[in-house]
Structures are given as C-alpha cells and as structure tokens.
C-alpha cells in the first residue's frame, strides 16, 4: 500500500487517534470492506488534509470523517449498501461558503430522510466565518464542517449534483442529475452581504427537497 503518510512524523497522540479511527471504521464497515481498503481510505484522507490543515490536532478526526463518507459512497457505488435514501452532493470552488450553507439547510430540512455531502474543486483551509455567522442567525450550526474535495466515488454515489461556480472543474458522470445554481461567492464578504446569498440558497434547497426527498408520513 503506497501512501505519503509517514508514520514517523506523527506524534504519539496522532498515532493513537488514527489507530482509534481505523478501529472505528473497521467496526462500522465490518463485512463490507476489509482492513486494507479501510486503511487505504483513511491514509489517503489524512494526506488530503495534512498539507493545508490549520490545527494539526484535528487531522485524525477530519481523516476519519472524510474516509467514512468515501467508504459509504463506495459501498453504494459497488452495491454493498442497502441504504436507499437519496444522496445530494453540493459543490463549489472552495467548499467554504455556498456548498456548506446549502448542505446545512439540506441536512436541517431532511433529517435522516436523505444524505447530503459537499465538496470543492480547490478546497480552502476553513469554512468562511461570515457564512458560519449568517447560518447561525437562522439556527443552523456549520462551524463543525470542513472544506474537502470531491472524489469519484462520492460523485458517482450521488443522485443529484448541485454545482455553484466550479465551472469546468465540476465532475460529470453519466446518470447523475446535475443543476448549476448561479449564486454569488461569499468569499471575503461581510455577514450583511452574505445574508441575501444565504436566503437564496435556502430558497433553492427548499425547492430541491420538496422535489427529491419523500415527506415524513403523517
């Protein structure tokens, strides 16, 4: 197995955290994927964030979360999952503003009736503070989210792919539903300027949910 993860550069705490992450994923995907596949995805996810992480202590947690998402996507693509819930993927350039706000609304509106993911063509280092503040005003906390790329299995597992400004970099796979939302980039804007963007995203997400996600039985 080839990886740029050099274990001798990790602290003892990081070693322990990654071992715990690998054990968590092994339990969750027991019977679905073997240890080699799980470790490969975990190591690749760690490498993805290592080059641009702001707080190194969070790296193992981010790696585990991203590896979990990728493994769930792979399970669906390969027919190893019985989860029939619709999956929507929100994409923008940095995965730090528009796609994170869209995911926040989607998750709040659908609960466990659907699965929402997000990604960016050139992921930033942190979610836009103005986007976090604007979403907090409507009772949605996206402060725990993190910018991440998209991967082939994540795109292929999605039933609908919503793009917001990633242009030619946006991935295209046959059989997916694609929508391009023309929404301004909130990067470097104030909270006052982000509010109209937030409200437009909410309007679009509500319409998407009404169309794609079955309502909860009365």
Automatic annotation (TrEMBL):
List GO BP terms, alphabetically. Answer: response to arsenic-containing substance
Taxonomic superkingdom: Bacteria
Q: Which UniProt keywords apply?
A: Arsenical resistance
Location of the Phosphotyrosine protein phosphatase I domain: 86-211
Is GTP-binding given among the entry's keywords? Answer: no
Show the InterPro entries listed in the entry. Answer: Phosphatase-like_N, Ptyr_pPase, Ptyr_pPase_sf
Would you tell me the protein name for this molecule? Protein-tyrosine-phosphatase
What is the organism field in this record? Pseudonocardia sediminis
The lineage, from the top, is: Bacteria, Bacillati, Actinomycetota, Actinomycetes, Pseudonocardiales
